[in-house]
């Protein structure tokens, strides 16, 4: 069932399709911005985790495209203003970081904020799909939620055992 910008959301299927288009947009927005953030990361481990995250995003987008085809969802992307705000916030924070260790801590925390938003989004979509007996979609959304949680766990470990420790006492060349 197609949902366009002017159509009302009158049932759970319409809502799922609308949300699917919105978080597809958020994945595209993140895919376009993440390479720049990866290149700005100082920690090799952080770069590695963010590259893995980028790979997950590409995988999510490929699977979302399959859903669009199977469900005949209008693939016209809707701008996800939440992701747009997250990206703007990350860029603003990073532009104010004067130290590589602080920048890594900032980037990591910002990515985790985005990650938590996406965990919630995919979890909700999985619940909607299950309620609609759309097992394949529910499985795909659950799989995406799990990959987001895996990235979150990796980022938490990295923050606790490396990034935050270095950011606590950065080596400053400006003193």
Could you name the key traits of this structure?
175 residues; 5 helices; mainly alpha; Ferritin
Description of the molecule:
This protein has 175 residues and is an all-alpha fold. The protein has a single domain (12-168), classed as Up-down Bundle (Ferritin). It contains five helices and no strands. The longest helix is centred in the C-terminal third of the chain and has 34 residues, at 135-168. The protein is elongated.
What is the structure about, briefly put?
The protein is an all-alpha fold and about 180 residues long. The protein has 5 helices and no strands.
Which helices and strands appear, and what pairs or packs with what?
Blueprint: H1 12-40, H2 44-71, H3 81-96, H4 100-131, H5 135-168
Helix pairs in contact: 1-2, 1-3, 1-4, 2-5, 3-4, 4-5
What are the segments in which pLDDT stays under 50 over at least 5 consecutive residues? none
What letter string, H or E per element, gives the SSE order? HHHHH
The number of domains:
1
Annotated CATH topology:
Ferritin
CATH class: Mainly Alpha
- In terms of quaternary structure, the protein is single chain
Give the number of DSSP strands. 0
Distance between the termini: 62 Å
Q: Percent range for helical residues?
A: over 70%
Overall 3D shape:
elongated
Largest sheet: none
CATH superfamily: Ferritin, core subunit, four-helix bundle
Strand content: under 5%
- What is the CATH architecture annotation? Up-down Bundle
Roughly how many Å is the radius of gyration? 18 Å
Helix/strand/pairing category: mainly alpha
Number of helical runs? 5
Q: What is the arithmetic mean of pLDDT? A: 90
